[in-house]
């Protein structure tokens, strides 16, 4: 079974950038969609972005600021986050996603992103 490990989170000032990594182990996922999600304290987990062979898709509130990409050789998907805002503070997770961007597997530990104002 595929397992994901998220990394790259940290503390950054508003307006700064971070690049998150999602590395898969257990099986290649080249043929699947991979999505990024986040969960802020006291809020439900929400969809951020997904990438598949046909392209990528973003939630409206990150469009133009975040960019998702993948390196098949490394079994890794990246989330480049620019122009970060305090409201981007959350734990970020990645997962296999269905054709309608629903998560398919159990969640990993995620990576904490904290944006200070």
Overview of this structure, please?
The chain has 117 residues and is mostly beta strands. It has strands spanning 3-7, 10-13, 18-25, 33-39, 46-52, 55-58, 66-71, 76-81, 90-97, 111-116. The strands form two sheets. The protein has a six-stranded mixed β-sheet, with no helix packed on it. A four-stranded antiparallel β-sheet has the order 1-3-8-7, with no helix packed on it. It starts with a strand and ends with a strand. The mean pLDDT is 93.
Low-confidence stretches: none
Helical stretch tally: 0
Order of helices and strands: EEEEEEEEEE
Count of strand segments: 10
Beta-strand fraction estimate: over 45%
Query: Over all CA atoms, what is the radius of gyration?
Result: 13 Å
Question: Helicity level, as a percent range?
Answer: under 10%
| Biggest β-sheet description | 6 strands, mixed
Give me the secondary-structure category. mainly beta
Strand order of the largest sheet: 2-10-9-4-5-6
The backbone outline, from C-alpha atoms, is globular
Instruction: Give the distance, in angstroms, between the N- and C-terminal Cα atoms.
Output: 40 Å
Mean pLDDT: 93
